[in-house]
Design goal:
Dihydrodipicolinate Reductase, domain 2; single chain; Rossmann fold; 14 helices; 6-stranded mixed sheet; 2 domains
């Protein structure tokens, strides 16, 4: 079964998805009965191109890899006909829109507007953008259901590590009562370096920035805003909550010193920035804060830039999944996994 796909945003995640579609095309067709045709791309910095019959994906990757604008695509729409995302959604013949733009955790825009337009025009949506999922999940889910469409968000919490697909399929039949995890690889890398290499906080942060784990302005990571957005999504999707980022009690890792980390290690503990959401009756609460975990806790063994999440269920007890929380191919895979989930549903 073939699906026509339009990309909004073709940066790291979008290009990761395109690379996977090239590499895995034969396997996806033979094993899964799935074929993807990219019919449109709209990117604020890289330009736009419409191709109702499908783009030559290797050519697109070649153009982008050379640092060129998509206006250079042979036979493309050209700069005079360049389209913004809303126009692309309207004009393209896409079945599915992959919304892969930057995250604004305060407003969820402009991504939320793109998603609403796609759903209003009969297109399924997959996204890796935390903003719409954290702020408008219930509204967007209802819109999708009202239009008999799907809105999928696997890449919003742990990149390609399957959080929502695990809950939807592997844990089906369980009630999830609580989730807690390490949802920010930057802070986990910093705390690991402070413990393993004896670095102080400032030096560990500088190293994280040098290696690309942290931005020049690391506030979103080290002060817990990124993890807070993710725990809101988990609260609302998995626990049935209706909370906003402002409802999360949040504390970052700036107050954690090397002496504290080493003392915890001496006592058989390890500091982690833990995001947690809990359901108590009809109320869901969430918080993000550094915690001293005993080494016996599965989360304590998660080192470096890895992420992990523990589900507390009524039938299985605690189940922990660990994997990458970022990365070009890893997050690209999260989009593929959502595309395949849509395919499995429609192909029944």
């Amino acid at each position: 079964m073939e699906y026509k796909i339009g990309l909004i945003g073709c940066g790291t995640v979008g290009q990761g998805l395109l690379e996977i579609l090239v590499k895995k095309a034969g396997e996806l067709r033979e094993r899964n009965g799935f074929e993807a045709r990219i019919v449109a791309v709209s990117d604020k910095l890289k330009g736009s191109v419409l191709a109702p019959d499908g783009l030559d994906i290797p050519k697109v990757l070649e153009i982008l890899g050379a640092g060129k604008n998509l206006d250079a695509y042979p036979g493309g729409s050209g700069p005079s006909a360049a389209v913004d995302p809303l126009d692309m959604i309207e004009k393209s013949n896409a079945d599915i829109i992959a919304e892969l733009t930057y995250t604004d955790i305060k407003t969820g825009e402009p991504a939320t507007g793109y998603i609403k337009k796609a759903l209003r025009t009969g297109k399924h949506v997959v996204t890796s953008n935390k903003g719409p999922a954290a702020i408008h999940y219930h509204e967007l889910k209802k819109m999708a259901q009202a239009n008999r469409l799907q809105f999928r968000i696997e890449g919003t919490v742990m990149s390609g590590t399957p959080v929502f697909h695990l809950a939807e399929s592997g844990l089906v039949g369980n009630e999830i009562r609580e989730v807690q995890g390490i949802l920010n690889g930057t802070t986990n890398f910093i705390l690991t370096k402070m413990e393993v290499d004896g670095m102080d906080y400032a030096d560990a942060l500088k190293l994280a920035q040098k290696l690309g784990y942290a931005e020049a302005d690391p506030t979103a990571d080290v002060e817990g805003f990124d993890a807070a957005g993710k725990i809101v999504i988990l609260s609302n999707v998995l626990l049935g909550g209706s909370i906003a980022p402002a409802d999360v009690r949040r504390e970052g890792i700036g107050s954690i010193t090397r002496a504290m980390v080493l003392e915890a290690k001496r006592q058989g503990h390890r500091y982690k920035l833990v995001a947690r959401a809990k359901k108590d009756g009809g109320k869901v609460t969430a918080d993000v804060a550094p915690q001293r975990l005993p080494l016996s806790d599965p989360l304590a063994g998660v080192m470096g830039a890895q992420n992990a999440l523990t589900f507390d269920t009524d039938l299985l007890g605690k189940v922990t999944i660990q994997g990458p929380g970022a990365g070009k191919i890893e997050t690209g895979f999260s989009i593929l996994s959502d595309l395949l989930a849509i395919h499995r549903t429609l192909a029944k």
